[in-house]
Write a structure and sequence with these properties.
The protein has 411 residues and is of the alpha/beta class. The protein has helices at 3-35, 38-64, 79-107, 115-143, 146-173, 180-206, 213-224, 258-275, 347-357, 370-378, 393-398; strands at residues 229-240, 243-252, 279-288, 293-300, 319-326, 329-337, 362-365, 382-385. It is rod-shaped, with a radius of gyration of 35 Å.
């Protein structure tokens, strides 16, 4: 589901909730007035306050639907987080109100007429508000809306408030009007905990905190497995309403041109989208990796080690010598037979695949066709030009810092 569609679904849920609450408040207020149930009237007033909460969530989600403008280049998505914070404060106030009602009930028990009617209205209120809370919570979780989830939590606390009214009416019917007091005090503690938790999450989100640290490590591991990525230096994510914005700094496996950077950035963004729902934008900064350790492939005609004669061919050459260097100093070398030398077709490409499997990051050649060039290029293998006046490997190694980089096919 697209972000705009999710926002519309959330706004629809808030609108439906507002209509249901208006209907419910009218029923409880009317029955409470005729039955003389002060707790039912108080609950009706409480529900009337909830109407404004649902309206606030609806307004927040509708604001999030607005397109970005000059003063809000990142859109109005955080309006949803502001509303979530507001609703969480109302949840805490609901807990205060429940405590106040409990203490009031202890001091001044209410005498209720039409007790059956009042009890029926209170039970209907419990069922309706519970259904509303589950409806909003389901939609909120589906679209990951903090405001709607907070409003659902608020409605869930109202279920307890309405249950207190049921208990109060039953207690009145049994001649024990103070039965609900202890339960209200316990419930208020739960409500405070829910409100504080929601307020904390909303405030941290508004401050661009990212709370899911596991997702950062999962993204890091996934991106570092992309061919061409040497390591991930930094990942920054922030939630804005339903959407996520991110920044990432990676080090490529060697130098790469702008076109390859663009392709690599797109690959990284696809990987991150697979981990993070509703990723709106990801800025990727690709920095070329420092190649202090080189594994150089050089085509040769024989098995004479560093005295081997150079070959001017990529695919036809019978052997390759692999030279390992660190900080421009020779560490080791090894001569290996080219398994693609006797192939009739695609010798160059198959040779390139063979060298990639061997972990080569530099190759020195005289001429190179399009197939092997693009294979080396896409694998972040640097291609250096072989001079005409050099015959053996030893002399070529001494000239490596002076060799030119080949940036396009030469055949």
């Amino acid at each position: 589901m697209a972000v705009k569609e999710e926002l519309r679904a959330g706004a629809k849920a808030s609108r439906n909730s507002t209509i249901a609450l208006i209907f419910l408040a009218a029923i409880k207020g009317t029955v409470g007035f005729y039955s003389g149930s002060s707790s039912l009237i108080a609950d009706a007033i409480h529900t009337s306050m909830d109407i404004f909460t649902s309206l606030a969530v609806w307004v927040g989600l509708k604001l999030s639907l607005k397109s970005s403008g000059e003063h809000f280049p990142y859109g109005y998505y955080k309006a949803e987080n502001l509303v979530a914070l507001f609703v969480s404060l109302l949840i805490i106030l609901s807990g205060v109100e429940l405590v106040r009602e409990a203490l009031s009930t202890i001091r001044d028990p209410a005498e209720i007429e039409f007790q059956g009617l009042a009890l029926g209205a209170a039970v209907f209120s419990v069922i309706t508000i519970y259904a509303l809370s589950q409806y909003k919570f389901r939609v909120g979780k589906e679209i990951e809306s903090q405001a709607l989830i907070a409003d659902a939590t608020h409605s869930y606390t109202d279920v307890f408030s309405s249950m207190v009214v049921v208990v109060a009416i039953i207690g009145s019917m049994l001649g024990m009007p103070c039965l609900d007091s202890l339960g209200v005090l316990v419930i208020s503690v739960v409500i405070f905990k829910l409100g504080i938790s929601t307020a904390k999450e909303s405030a941290l989100t508004l401050m661009d905190a990212w709370l899911d640290r596991d997702s950062i490590e999962t993204i890091r591991e996934s991106v570092e497995h992309i061919p061409g990525v040497n390591r991930v230096d930094d990942i920054r994510l922030r939630r804005s309403g339903l959407v996520v914005f991110g920044e990432m700094q990676v080090e490529s496996a060697g130098e790469c041109d702008l076109k390859r950077v663009e392709v690599l950035s797109a690959e990284i963004e696809e990987v991150v989208k697979g981990e993070i729902k509703n990723l709106e934008h990801l800025s990727v900064d690709v920095k070329p990796g420092k190649m202090s350790e080189l594994r150089i492939a050089i085509p040769v005609t024989g098995l004479e080690g560093l005295q081997s004669k150079l070959s001017r061919h990529i695919g036809k050459t019978p052997y390759y010598i692999f030279v390992d260097m660190e900080d421009n100093k020779l560490k080791s070398w090894d001569v290996v037979e080219n398994p693609a030398a006797d192939l009739e077709r695609k010798r160059g490409v198959k040779t390139a695949e063979f060298l990639e499997e061997k972990g080569v990051n530099v190759i020195i050649v005289k001429d190179i066709g399009e197939g092997p060039f693009h294979k080396f290029h896409d694998s972040f293998i640097r291609i250096l030009g072989m001079p005409d006046d050099v015959d053996d490997v030893q002399a070529l190694i001494e000239m490596i810092p002076e060799l030119d980089v080949i940036i396009s096919p030469t055949e």
